[in-house]
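Subject: sequence -> structure tokens, single chain

Hey, anyone have a minute? Need the predicted structure for the following. Not urgent.
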Amino acid sequence: MSFTRFRRTNLIVMTAAATLALAGCAASSGSGTTGNAQSGPSSTVSGASLAGLSTTSACVDGKVKFGIAYISDGAVAAAEASGKTISAQGAAQAAAAIQQQFTIGLNYLNSHGGWLGCQVVPVYFQFHIVSSDYNTEDQQMCLDFASAKVFAAINWITNDTPLLPQCLASHGIPTIWDSDQLQLDNAMYKEYAGYLYQPWGFSYDRWGAFVQALSTAGVLPAGTKVGIVIANNGYGAETYLANDILAPKFKELGDSVQTFTYTNIAGLSDLSGVATQMQAAVLKFKNAGIQDVMFTPSASVSSLEFSTAANSQDYFPTYIMNSLETPGAYLTTKDKTKALFLSFLPGKDDVAPEPASVLASAPANPAYNLCANTIYKGVADPPTDFCDAMFFIQDALKHGKTISVAALNAGVDSLGTSFDSANGYGPTYFGPGVYDGGQELQVQKWDPAINAFDYVGSVQKIP
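Reply:
Had a minute. Here:
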């Protein structure tokens, strides 16, 4: 069992590969559209009351509770995808093995002062992707964490919905956001200020610089016809990303853009509906002569289903992938020959093990070395996002004298560039109203000589 972001996403990928074997309600009813620019994402959830962040100490009897949600039936999903079964005992053992990884990290954290000298105690929530849907699981996760009175939480989950940040914020629980499917924009950070943080992340409002990075690396010729597949996750942020951030930047660089929108899955039973929609997306882009195809974050649902449909229609565009789409897991050899990659989670970018030449060219990162070579020494796939969550909270709280929601927020506002991310390239920046810390990205392209994605040019700063 592996434990990285890639492996969490890969559970969905493997299950999606067997989607036609799943009897499902085709709830994904998106339709092709060229899209119209909008002024910003329109929230379908009501924000929490942020009139005043709690100053009450969460350290009780020398202990503070940390909510940790993880996919507990991933082994079941993987077995089903390969046409096999797994016993209840085997599934339980796989879930226990994941919890053991968190225990390793927390033991190290607590032996090095915990949070302000308070011992961090885990409160686990087992998220079910096979037997339930994401909204139901997010709701139950929120209620369980609220009932347990956790101080903060991490959703170590591939798939989450807009319900989760609204519910957790309404219960006064700050979250280290760790979903591959639902990413954040400035509007959501503002709506839930004081309750949403992503140490390694990039708000959607900054993704225009991702497009510029492709041009700077010399892999995006002017005049390219670009297609963007929009995974609508119910908040409007992905449509905003495509129409207001990505498309204008592509056009500024001399490219043309078309889009296709579908409703992303709310459970594995929706995958067959997405497969049908991607057939229509491929037909539209192929007929329009689209040369490059980019995906808004979808936890690999879009890119897997689109590339599968494209292969069936003998259509092989250049795919512009990113660290949330795990291209090495499913793109065919012919797909990969032209594929481009926007790397901002360097330890998770492709199928492990990556060639030594690629790993050697990655910039040195002391935070990654601490996580991978000290805390998780001997573990093949160290959970670098969990390391970030532990130490981000620890570092922020050091700026105050109490463990409270208000103190955490004030501490984050004071971090500046002092926190290093193990999950990203290292450097971060935080300040008042700035809660997405990622600062660096590197472009990769497929190199058939080493059968892997390799770096093009140097690391680029993302404003």
